[in-house]
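Office hours follow-up: a student asked to see two folded examples consecutively, so here they are.
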Amino acid sequence: MDLAFIVIVLQLIFLEGILSIDNAAILGAMVNPLPVDEAIPWPKRLTRIGHVFNRLLGPQNRKNIYL
């Protein structure tokens, strides 16, 4: 393989990694935390099994999540 081709591919991989870290930082700064007493909502299609998981794991609210 040509050395220039390998260098270009490595540069693209590096730049994509930097951009993904930047996007994650921006999204992390935009996220608002839920109030302490508000439960974390289940997606609409998973509400039926969500009740089963709530029984097995306990209620999923912010008090139970350790960061």
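And the second, which I mentioned at the end of office hours:
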Amino acid sequence: MANSIKNLPEINESESQYESALKLRLRSISQFSLLGPPDLCYLTKDFHRSLNISFNKPNSQGFYHYNYGLCPSTPAAISAYITKLLKMQETESNWFSNGKWIITKACYCMFDAFTRTDIYLEIMLPGGMRLYGTTANEEITQIDEKGWEKGYVSSVLRAMQPEKMPILKLYREFQRFFHNFSSYT
């Protein structure tokens, strides 16, 4: 049963821990370092059985990974990244497979170091999107274009000095950028 995305290591949460990574991140906002934690991409995947004889609701589980250097310049850039993940989701092609995993929701989180707000972009699949922020007091705030730009700049600054994290995906596009940038200094 292939529940993973090709060439992307993910942390899998069991059903009893569903969304615990998001909840822990929310509770920890006040303790974040100056630039904050790496961006978090949280995916909800449902397992759909090939022969749904029992007519049960699909089994939902959470999967997540961290990102440095994704270049979240706009919500559309994040949507394009999620679309790429959808295409890379592995499917089991064996004749004895009893179903497949389908990504049904994605939540991309990035920390705005200037206002100390965690920005969430939720993408519901097959359609729908929600953009909001949360503060250390767990207040939900609206994120406008300037708020997104602050989050983007914070994300770029974090990519320049990445922390060591488990299951971390560092993108080559920023590696090349920072290599060229460091040659000037």
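Two things to take away from it. The longest strand covers residues 99-112. Residues 170-175, 180-185 have pLDDT under 50 and may be disordered.
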